[in-house]
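hey
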């Protein structure tokens, strides 16, 4: 550390997008690698097509405007983690309140689906988009092979396949998920022919009130 602890404490301030993204955008080993909808570009881009909520030309929102905090606990999770932090549901309709009703949209076809189709399913038709005002490539990882490496020097990270402008996979999700636990007997998923390590729970006939059709990133490894 280049400054004293006392000086460091005096620099404490509310986090900006860049503070959160310094870690979260690099999950999985690099910029935009894991999630496909978070990248370092999110901190300062003016491209509203890249991120309408956080673009400086859009709503210019901070992360904690949705990920509210209380007593150092933060609301929000992905489909691959149990809800172990702040017990506050995050939803598009927390702000867009009229869209929860059967008359919140302009067409009857959309209104009759709001109880079963998540907002993101229609409003996020693609992911891993490139920001138009950055030199970086915001491609996300779609496959990781531990059988080979793209590197020419140590530590020889596994080979990675990345892509942009991907169409999500769609699954019903009831806000619970399955995650493989070390030591658990692995079983092949007959639908994919692969061993699942993380997947959303839910089905078209799931009657739980939170069960809706959601878009997901699908990633494989070997």
């Amino acid at each position: 550390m280049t400054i004293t602890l006392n000086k460091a404490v005096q620099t404490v301030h509310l986090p900006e997008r860049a503070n959160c993204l310094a870690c979260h955008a690099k999950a999985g080993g690099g910029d935009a690698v894991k999630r496909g909808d978070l990248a370092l570009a999110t901190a300062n881009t003016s491209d509203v097509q890249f991120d309408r909520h956080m673009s400086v030309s859009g709503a210019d929102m901070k992360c904690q405007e949705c990920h509210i905090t209380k007593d150092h606990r933060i609301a929000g999770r992905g489909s691959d983690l149990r809800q172990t932090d702040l017990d506050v549901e995050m939803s598009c309709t927390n702000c867009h309140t009229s869209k929860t009703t059967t008359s919140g949209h302009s067409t009857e076809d959309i209104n009759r689906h709001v109880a079963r189709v998540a907002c993101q399913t229609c409003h996020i038709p693609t992911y891993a988009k490139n920001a138009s005002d950055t030199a970086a490539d915001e491609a996300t990882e779609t496959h990781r092979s531990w059988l080979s490496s793209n590197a020419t020097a140590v530590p020889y990270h596994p080979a990675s396949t990345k892509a942009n402008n991907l169409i999500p996979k769609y699954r019903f999700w009831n806000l619970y998920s399955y995650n493989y636990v070390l030591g658990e007997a692995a079983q092949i998923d007959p639908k994919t022919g692969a061993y699942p390590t993380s997947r959303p729970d839910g089905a078209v006939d799931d009657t739980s009130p939170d069960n809706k059709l959601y878009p997901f990133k699908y990633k494989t490894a070997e």
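The helical segments are 5-10, 17-24, 108-111, 119-123. The chain has four helices and nine strands.
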